[in-house]
């Protein structure tokens, strides 16, 4: 078999690269070791977690918001089995959708574990042990990432789980202990908290969500605490012991000091993810890596001609849309076009309630870079639509360059923040100013008016506050 391009891994990076390459006329194949396509994101990540976040949020709304809206349905009863059916149906529809798209674009799909014996060759080892070698002009490594282990703690995916196990629990834990106050811990913690678990989060640093704008993270922590989360910041888990009387977790201050113990039914380890390069044969093929990630240049090229890499396995945020955009760009580059990704305008969303959405620089980053900036802020308590839906927690913060007014960052905590950030993403992509945003007509009554008012507040001319 001989191809223009073989893509290893069919996550959001890989399948998108393959489809774009096929659109551009390249003879393309993909190799995937999972039974289904779609990678971490569609099988065990973005999609199942959002299915459960949505379902558990509806449960929470029925429990706590419906009465205030004048809807009396009695106390909602949880049918966890059906909720998991909803999750699986969502996953199945998405992964089958990718299989359909690959077929529609005439992409050959091989199931098995790929390795690279040399540039121009991809070996595929099927589950039954048989192997075949694909000849190809180009290779894209899109093998993604896996959960990072916590030294000294054994994951069994039943009691001590990663996100994968935590999205498959057969019953609601009484006590869920989460190690790591990052995106996974707070999203999946929210799912089980809404369904009745007491959630305790142990975080190594003295804050939640490192890298997120400080003010947003602080407000988010307060809101989560109101929802019942308990945080142990500046702390690390040193031991997890599972016995007949349940699980005991030993926690120490990060800086050293006296240990304490916490009890839990389930322990979720969510301390980051690490790139998947094991067994790919990178060393043999001479492909350079840096701290586990495949090293690439600005055109996704590794040091070996004809071998490219994208997505979680390379530098940058581990996000599905970042991987997808890199997939498009690498295919265009291989086809001789000018593919490009703007890393200054990649939004990040946390799909909790309220949602947290960020793009561009945080205040702390601007200060550290010595860039003079102006701030405009607007709270959802002053937005008519937020009041109508009874979700007034949070605010929008716009950061603009003090000299040029160009928007450098936007941080939102509030209802539908993930959708609201999209207009700021487009604005930033076009190098827009806070004035541009403030003078754009926004429909009334919408949550997006809070974004416009935050932009107006940069020059202290907001109307509704
Ligand atoms: P992956 O999706 O990891 O795909 C890589 C594929 O390569 C896998 O299918 C793997 O089986 C295959 N593979 C690996 N090695 C080989 C080999 N040797 N041979 C053949 N195949 C191989 N991101 C968001 O943007 N939004 C979210 O809401 C979001 N939620 C998440 C929730 C959870 C619980 C998790 C864990 C992650 C979430 N992410 C989210 C992150 C997102 O899943 C990743 O950024 C994204 O999947 C990366 O895409 P990728 O194509 O680089 O790799
Ligand atoms: P993360 O990097 O977001 O957070 C990990 C947290 O664990 C950090 O706060 C870190 O300080 C802490 N930590 C590290 N070692 C620790 C230790 N020993 N003890 C206690 N705390 C420790 O990683 P997470 O949540 O595992 O997510 C992995 C990746 O998946 C992220 O990079 C994220 O981009 C992606 N993801 C994206 C989602 C989204 O876009 N909505 C949802 C879920 C995951």
UniProtKB/TrEMBL annotation:
For the biological process aspect of GO, one term held by this record is: 2-oxoglutarate metabolic process
Q: Which Gene3D superfamilies match?
A: 3.30.390.30, FAD/NAD(P)-binding domain
Q: Which residues bind FAD?
A: 50, 143-145, 312, 318-321
Pfam families (UniProt xref) = Pyr_redox_2, Pyr_redox_dim
Q: Which GO terms describe its molecular function?
A: dihydrolipoyl dehydrogenase (NADH) activity; flavin adenine dinucleotide binding
Domain FAD/NAD(P)-binding, which positions? Answer: 3-327
Look up the domain of life of the source. Bacteria
Kindly indicate whether the keyword Signal belongs to this entry. no
Q: Which residues form the active site?
A: 444 (proton acceptor)
Catalysed reactions listed for this entry: N(6)-[(R)-dihydrolipoyl]-L-lysyl-[protein] + NAD(+) = N(6)-[(R)-lipoyl]-L-lysyl-[protein] + NADH + H(+)
The Pyridine nucleotide-disulphide oxidoreductase dimerisation domain covers 346-455
Task: Give the record's GO CC terms.
Answer: cytoplasm
Show the disulfide pairing. Answer: 41-46
What does the Swiss-Prot or TrEMBL cofactor note state? Answer: Binds 1 FAD per subunit.
Provide the top EC class.
Answer: oxidoreductase
Q: Which family does it belong to?
A: Belongs to the class-I pyridine nucleotide-disulfide oxidoreductase family.
What is the name listed in the Swiss-Prot or TrEMBL entry for this protein? Dihydrolipoyl dehydrogenase
């Amino acid at each position: 078999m001989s191809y223009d391009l073989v893509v290893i891994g069919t996550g959001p990076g890989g399948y998108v690269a393959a489809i774009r390459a096929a659109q551009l006329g390249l003879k393309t194949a993909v190799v995937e070791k999972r039974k289904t396509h779609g990678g971490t994101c569609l099988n065990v990540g973005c999609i199942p977690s959002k299915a459960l976040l949505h379902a558990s949020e509806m449960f929470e709304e029925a429990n706590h918001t419906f009465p205030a809206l004048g809807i009396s349905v009695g106390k909602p009863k949880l049918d966890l089995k059906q909720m998991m059916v909803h999750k699986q149906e969502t996953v199945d529809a998405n992964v089958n959708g990718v299989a359909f798209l690959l077929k529609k674009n005439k992409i050959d799909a091989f199931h098995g574990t790929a390795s690279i014996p040399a540039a121009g060759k991809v070996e595929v080892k099927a589950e039954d042990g048989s192997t075949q070698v694909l000849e190809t002009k180009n290779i894209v490594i899109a093998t993604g990432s896996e959960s990072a282990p916590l030294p000294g703690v054994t994951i069994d995916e039943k009691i001590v789980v990663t996100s994968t196990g935590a999205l498959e629990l057969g019953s609601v834990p009484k006590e869920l202990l989460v190690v790591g106050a990052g995106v996974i811990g707070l999203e999946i913690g929210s799912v089980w908290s809404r369904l009745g678990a007491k959630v305790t989060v142990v975080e190594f640093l003295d804050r939640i969500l490192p890298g997120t704008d400080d003010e947003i993270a602080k407000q988010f922590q307060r809101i989560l605490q109101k929802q019942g989360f308990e945080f142990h910041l500046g702390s690390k888990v040193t031991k997890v012991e599972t016995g007949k009387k349940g699980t005991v977790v030993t926690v120490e201050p990060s800086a050293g000091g006296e240990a304490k113990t916490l009890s839990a039914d389930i322990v979720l380890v969510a301390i980051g993810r690490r790139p998947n390069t094991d067994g790919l044969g990178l060393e043999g093929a001479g492909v350079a890596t840096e701290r586990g990630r495949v090293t690439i240049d600005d055109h996704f090229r590794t040091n070996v001609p004809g071998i490219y890499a994208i997505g979680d396995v390379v530098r940058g945020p581990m996000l599905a849309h970042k991987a997808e955009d890199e997939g498009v760009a690498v295919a265009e580059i291989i086809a001789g076009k000018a593919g490009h990704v703007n890393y200054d305008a990649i939004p990040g969303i946390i799909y909790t309630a309220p949602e947290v959405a960020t793009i561009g620089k945080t205040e702390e980053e601007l200060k550290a870079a010595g860039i003079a900036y102006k701030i405009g802020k607007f709270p959802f308590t002053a937005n008519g639509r937020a009041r109508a839906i009874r979700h007034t927690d949070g605010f929008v913060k716009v950061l603009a360059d003090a000299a040029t007014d160009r928007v450098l960052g936007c941080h939102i905590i509030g209802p539908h923040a993930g959708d609201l950030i999209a207009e700021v993403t487009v604005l930033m992509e076009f190098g827009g100013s806070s004035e541009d945003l403030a003078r754009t007509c926004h429909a009334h009554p919408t949550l997006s008016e809070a974004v416009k008012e935050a932009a107006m507040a940069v020059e202290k001319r907001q109307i509704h506050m």
